[in-house]
Structures are given as C-alpha cells and as structure tokens.
Argininosuccinate lyase (Desulfosarcina widdelii), 460 residues
Amino acid sequence: MAEKPWDGRFAEKTDKRVEAFTASHAYDRRLYPYDIAGSIAHCKMLAKVGVITGEEVAQLVEGLGTVKRELDHGKFVFDDSLEDIHMHIEARLLQVAGKVAQKLHTARSRNDQIALDVRMYLREETRCTIGLLRALRKALVELAAAHPDVIMPGYTHTQRAQPVLMAHHLMAYYEMFTRDQARMVDCLGRIDVMPLGTAALAGTTYPIDRAYVAELLDFPAVSNNSMDAVSDRDFAMEFLSAASISMVHLSRLSEELVLWSTAEFGFVTLPDAFATGSSIMPQKKNPDIPEIVRGKTGRVVGSLVALLTLMKSLPMAYNRDMQEDKEPLFDAVDTLTACLSINADMIPRIIVNRETMRRAASVGFLNATDMADYLVGRGMPFRKAHACVGKAVAFALDKGKELHELTLDELKGFSSLIQEDLYEHLTLEHMVDRRQSVGGTSTRNVVAAIDAARRVLAGE
Ligand code: ARG
C-alpha cells in the first residue's frame, strides 16, 4: 500500500472499503492534463517568489512531463489508496523526480487544485461546445438556403395552422441555437476565473503571485474570495443549465425529425448513413439518431438537477460532497457534444420532400386566416370576417372540399365582398409572401434572415 501524504496523525491504516468508497480516480483521471499544467504553473510561481529554487522548478517540470507522458500513453498505474488524480500524480512524481516532489504542494491544497482543474477542463469543453453550436447553426442555415421556396404547413397544437417556408421553420432553430451559443459564451466568462492560491479555504501565508499563475494558465482574472473560490460550483451549474436548454432545443428538433420522417408525414428522408434498421423487419429504416438525442436530453437535465441538489445547503467552505460534481458534469459534457456534433453532420444530408410538404400545406384550410384577412381588406371587421369564414369552412367540410375549391358562387354566398381575386389571394405563395411583418415568413424576410445569419457565422 502506498503511504498516504496525510496519514501522519492516523493510528491505523485506512480500511480498504473506505479507500474504494472515497476514491474518485476512476473518473477524475480525465483531468490530468489540467492538473499537470496547473502544477507546472504553480511551481514556476513558487520559484518566481523565492519559495523554491530555479533548479527545483526545473526538476519538478521535468518530472511532471514524465508523469504526463506515462498518462498520455496509458502506462500509469492507478490505486484506490491514492484516492484521486491529484494524489496519483504527486505520488508518481516522488518516484520519478525524487524528494523535490515534496515541495510541489507548498501554498496549495487539493481544494483549490480541483477547483482549478475543473475550471480548466470546463473552459476547454465550453469552447468546444461553442464551436459545435456554431457548426449546427451553419448546417441549419445551409439546409434552409438550399430550399428557399419549399412551403410546408406551420402547426399549432400539432394541427395544421398556416403555411410557412420550411426555411423559416429551420431558421427558428437557428435562433434557438444562437441564443444557446450566447449563453455558453456568457458562461465561459465566469468559468474563466483562476482559483489557485486559495489553498484550503483561507488563503496562504506564502508570498504567492496569483496573477502570475493566471497569466501562465491564460486566465483573464483571479477569484476574489478564497472561501467562495473553493466552495462554489455555480460556474458548473451555469454550464449545465445552458447545456440543458440546448438539449431541450435539440430534443424539439429531434422530435420533429422523427415525426417528419414517418410515412404519415413523409416530409423528409433521413440519409441512410444516419439511420438504422431492424433486426426482424427487413423494411424498416429507423430514425435512431433523433430518438437517442431526444432520450439523452433527460440525462443532461438530470445532471443539472444532480448538481443543484448536491450544492443545495452545503455550508462553506469545501465539502467532500463536492467530489460528486464530476460524474454528472462529465456525462453532460460528453452527451451534449456528441448530440451537437452528430446533428451538425446529419442535418446537411437530410432529403427534403418538397411536394409532400406542399400537398400537406394545401389541405386542411390553412388559408382560412387569409380569407378572413381578404374580407378585412374589403372593409369587414375582423371578428365578423372570422365568423363568416368559419361558416365557409363548415360548408366546405360538409362538401369534402377546401376553401379554394369552392365555386365563386358558393363563396359569394358567404359575403358579397368576395371576388374572383380571392383565389389568387389564397395561393400558398401569396399567403407566405404577404407575411412581411418583421420576423414573418415571407420569402423576402427569410432570404434576408439567411443572408444575415451567413454574415454572422462568417464573422464568428
Ligand atoms: N477529489 C476531491 C474532489 O473532487 C478533491 C480533493 C479534496 N479532498 C479533500 N479531502 N480535501 O472534490
């Protein structure tokens, strides 16, 4: 059994079951690159302020490099008795660099060390998430741009409502993911704060230079309050909140892709490379990617709830409970990045069945609002027009026809304001293109939105 760096006051050896129960190396080992980079910056700073010598820092940096290579190449041996990644690295450093390793932990605690590691890890993952959100937005914009004239039913209550451009529908998701990206960028600013130098909770008596460590590790700021720095994880809760919102958006998109690729809708065909088959039914092509994304949303929301519940009512400062922050955080990061990335790859390859969409937009009285607007344009108050068209809809339903399939005489029966030009007024193109209010579905608006999005993406 390895000797523990903290066992000076202990009269008996730790029970094996305690070692297994408290160990976190199985999952926190993924933090090793950040832990080692943090240690290198820390010992350079200790040399700068005269706590260790230049020769010692050289030995430490070389030793840490050796340990890193072992970890990189999977040649590192883990052992429950060493608890976490920090202790493993320090113990191995003692073996490869000798006694000087005992100086590394001067003016430092694992409490500020883990806060640093998690922040460094999460800032890198947040940057990656921002890149993936951008790729997904680009995929949506390009799919929209490739189909500027495809008209589909817009829905409310999952009932056909009014015709919209499919590009407009896709650009709605562009807006959602743009806000998600902004949330991640905002969150990054609060992750990117350097906590090392807090030590256990109260700061340290050594003349440390925290700004220098921040500079070496490329942090724009250092934490203000030592107790806050080791004991809060709001930066992770914030990331998980933003991640959960993104997953909710992805789940909505996924749900639509599942519906749209059914025989009942038939609006899109998923690329074969992004679908799967059935082990029993030879005809099946299943939308497993959007289904799994939909399913994985619960994991990320669950991780957010796990961290919020973990942190609730924790007294200051560090508590070992907080070791439990890592698995939900890592799982959420892995899940979100996988879901964003597979969607960014799949979306450009979706096949759009324009005629099916158009047919669906032509059936189900999606032009009823426009017929009412036509009457308003000829002087009828809207409520009256609504009632009048409602009667026409009931009549048409009875005849098994659409409004635009009624004869002019039949239509005139509902209002003498109706003329031959109503038919043109009720065509899909006219209905879409009249909706020129800011943010509406007219081709002019949507083409401008696509152009604006392309400019924004090019500038990011
Ligand atoms: N592994 C711990 C964590 O993840 C960090 C070390 C702090 N441990 C301690 N006994 N003070 O939170």
Remarks:
- Residues 24, 28, 84, 110-111, 114, 318, 320, 322-323 surround arginine (CB under 6 Å).
- The chain has three domains: 7-106, 111-208+220-357, 364-459.
- The chain is about 60% helix and 5% strand.
- The two ends are 53 Å apart (CA to CA).
